[in-house]
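Lab notebook, page 48
Experiment: co-folding of the full assembly
Goal: obtain a model of how the components sit together before planning crosslinking
Operator: M.T.
Materials (sequences as entered):
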Amino acid sequence: MDLATVIGIVLAMGLVVSAILLGSSLLIFISAPSALIVIGGTIGATLVNYPLGSVLGVVGIFKKTFFSTVENPSEIIARFMDYANRARREGILSLEPLLKEIDDAYLRKGLQLTVDGLEPQTIEEIMQAEVDYLEQRHETGAEIVAAMGAYAPALGMIGTVIGLVQMLQSMSDPSTIGPAMAVALLTTLYGAILANLFFNPLAGKLKNRSREELLTRELIMEGILSISKGENPRIIEEKLNSFLPPKQRQSSD
Amino acid sequence: MDLATVIGIVLAMGLVVSAILLGSSLLIFISAPSALIVIGGTIGATLVNYPLGSVLGVVGIFKKTFFSTVENPSEIIARFMDYANRARREGILSLEPLLKEIDDAYLRKGLQLTVDGLEPQTIEEIMQAEVDYLEQRHETGAEIVAAMGAYAPALGMIGTVIGLVQMLQSMSDPSTIGPAMAVALLTTLYGAILANLFFNPLAGKLKNRSREELLTRELIMEGILSISKGENPRIIEEKLNSFLPPKQRQSSD
Amino acid sequence: MDLATVIGIVLAMGLVVSAILLGSSLLIFISAPSALIVIGGTIGATLVNYPLGSVLGVVGIFKKTFFSTVENPSEIIARFMDYANRARREGILSLEPLLKEIDDAYLRKGLQLTVDGLEPQTIEEIMQAEVDYLEQRHETGAEIVAAMGAYAPALGMIGTVIGLVQMLQSMSDPSTIGPAMAVALLTTLYGAILANLFFNPLAGKLKNRSREELLTRELIMEGILSISKGENPRIIEEKLNSFLPPKQRQSSD
Amino acid sequence: MDLATVIGIVLAMGLVVSAILLGSSLLIFISAPSALIVIGGTIGATLVNYPLGSVLGVVGIFKKTFFSTVENPSEIIARFMDYANRARREGILSLEPLLKEIDDAYLRKGLQLTVDGLEPQTIEEIMQAEVDYLEQRHETGAEIVAAMGAYAPALGMIGTVIGLVQMLQSMSDPSTIGPAMAVALLTTLYGAILANLFFNPLAGKLKNRSREELLTRELIMEGILSISKGENPRIIEEKLNSFLPPKQRQSSD
Amino acid sequence: MDLATVIGIVLAMGLVVSAILLGSSLLIFISAPSALIVIGGTIGATLVNYPLGSVLGVVGIFKKTFFSTVENPSEIIARFMDYANRARREGILSLEPLLKEIDDAYLRKGLQLTVDGLEPQTIEEIMQAEVDYLEQRHETGAEIVAAMGAYAPALGMIGTVIGLVQMLQSMSDPSTIGPAMAVALLTTLYGAILANLFFNPLAGKLKNRSREELLTRELIMEGILSISKGENPRIIEEKLNSFLPPKQRQSSD
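Observation: model returned without errors.
Model output:
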């Protein structure tokens, strides 16, 4: 559960609603047609912009911003120290029985390739291609949400101009100008809130999650390659530790 | 047929028209001169910006956003596994009879070069140059549509300023101010709709299509090079599979 | 003659003028002081931004957007096939008599270096440096025009604020407000038209011209290097053809 | 203590407050709800955008913009000249007793690896990974503050639109329009001040601090590698001096 | 003396002042508090953004946009031809007596390292580090001025919002609205003029100057390396000439 996402949205929306309630009823800020044009139009523009499959995948992507399952890098390093020491003492084939206990598909694949005795360079090519592909999929996800953050205020502006044109065309009764303009402004408000409190920060969180996950993958790749090259466990530890912030580093010494 | 493009445009435009109809007749939003200045001006600026041939090619480019012909990567991989096994067992010349059955010109050319016994490095140079060139042509296409998405709101703004100047110069009768301003705002509305519901998302879709097509080409290039280097079919499969999302991967084991 | 540039400007300006004439006389849109502040101010800011020589060179640069002299790539490839076959059959020195018939200075220089027997790597260094330099000069040209496209609307805005301040300071007679504001808006209009119908698209066209010219240079460099390495004419043809769109490719087979 | 940060904030805020006091009381510019929506909303959006840990770390990051502890590069170079001469004369192991006197963890680690006799390439990999990691953490810090600089004006705009809608809905008494609009504008003002006098310049200062610190790390890495390669002290001095502005360079000659 | 900078500023400011004088007295555009908040606030934000030393260095940087001391590249090439021929005929040590006549510290250092017999690769590392450092310092200078160009309009906007809030809070006498709003707009005007006629173009000029100077340094580095590698003077001339626009090239043949 990503607490920051939940706290952030509750805090920001709570403040916006409180600010409204201080000055008027919440009712004058609710307009189904305005919501429809902003939300529906944003979804429409996003569908034109991205393949159907990717847009439908956004629901799953949103979930990802609320839940986090990235493994702790320190644990991965500890695990690699174990593999490295074992490979040193008992040979690389001694890692084979461990393979079936590994949950992470990426780590298991890398270790399998190592146990199979492939060249480190070939292992690197295969593992790097996988990381590149993952990065690209993640980028597409964050990009879609960022695109929604760009289309929402544009749709808001379109809705407001439509409202203004209608107001200006029927300006016979001056007392209706104010309320008509207030309604016209609602789409701008919806667009700005959707973009700045939801889509843009969620796109940012997706990028951060992706960065963390990629770091873990690079850590795993570095570890696999070091083992397949038969490097000294102490050097492997130094290398992998440099992926951690200084505070989290542990030494097996 | 790219359903997402069609659904997206129908959804967004439908919502915009519904929003209009809720408040007034659609007629007050139709103005031929406004449409002419925004659309014609956008085309004019695009013609100054890009070569005539490229702009005329945009029609074909738009078609591309509605229809998709990218081959399924899984099928390409299956095909390469077949080639690789055949080349292993019967020698690389055994691929020659297959050449004439291949539809894709890029794959055929690559395989022809391999059968001809060129060095992998020379094959890579030729195939990479082709991919680079394709990427550049695609980028120009997406760039033109994106430029139209930038010029349309600018022309909309120019039209609105022209309308405002005319209104301000003849402000004798206050009752005409509202309608005159409403008309002036129409070009801004047209520009915003063209940019945000058509040009910008279509440019995005073109970039996505291009990315997919380039991935397929890279997959083909990787496969051709692996065969020409005489790599082990199992390693080829591992390499090519890393181009696929994990779910779509199949193993020949 | 670059028809697209001429057609584009005539089309866009014609539509803008027509849109004006539909609603009022053209006269209320003409203001010498407004034109002076926008055009003069843009030139001033550009002079501060770029060296005098480069700004004066912009006149020549504008000419370039109307006239095009890039040689047809297919013809260059045909020519290289001729050189390559000749060099194969009669030795590289047989190209020497052809040198004086070559108009293009870049091609002539490259071929001269080849005939002189320099190492391919040295030839590449010299020819690449020349291309890099050309690219930089082109970029500066396009950059200056793009900078004018950024300064013009800024000057337009400055002019409008000046007009608004003067109008607001002397607001005794309400009937003068409208026309005064109309005049103030003219600089904004001029800035927007200059930027979006002239400077920005012309900067774009310069970038496209430069891209074409650089492609031709790269094609020539690739051809020269292939000949100086004594490559097989068929492979040279494959390599050079990949610079062309598939439709334009010809085969000497 | 980073005087520039303190002077800059005091100067800018002092001028803003003076400008206000020249025209009215400061009181009409103070509104707790407006401050709450802008500041709280910005924090909320930032929490959605970044992991909780990183956002909480921002407090420590802000401190960093006020205090500077980067070591003087000239002193580091002098120290390296000492190490290099010592290593030359008495062998690399003679550096071991110095290790425990070194405060800087990065320098100590690098020297330890050198004394341990690791290959220069391995030392470079480990030290580079550490620098890369530091750079990434710094970038995240500056990015968070820059994101706050983007969210603050957006929240300001949202607050103003909310105020405008409320004002337009209850426009019965014309005399209340002015003050209501004034209050609505306060969130825009708060957002603009927070972004342009605090978040954006502070993000810039963080980037500058990070650049300085990275330069020092690169200087240390270069020095360590030169010593581990056993390079001539004079050449080491030339190399390290090129990290300094010409004025600060000293020669041991 | 950089004439373009002087002409540009005089031209643009002259036109702005003329435009003002055509419609009113210059006096209504002068407001010390407005100038103070825009200029002082911009300096304040810049101090928060950059280290004190760098901001104080901006005065020297501004001077640089008015005066130019870059040596003529043709002369540098002529000089290198002389060195190259001398080194060819009389050995590289024959360049030593020339060292003390060289004004340019960079050229002298490079030649000294060559005469000292260092490896070309070591010379390249040292000279490249120096160029990189110079580039970074130049970039910081241009960046600071560009940042001022971004803060000035933001401060102008802050000043205008402050003025608007004060005007709206005391809107009892309608006749004061106009002049109050006019005064409020002055900060926007000052910000726009400072940014678009001073800071932005000056930042651009700094970037251009830096580019010229870096080109000269690269030319010198290329020449030094060619001499230290003992290359043929004719090839050196070809290489260095490619740094010049075709018109300026001279041949020693």
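Interpretation: The mean pLDDT of chain B is 87.
Next step: discuss with group before ordering constructs.
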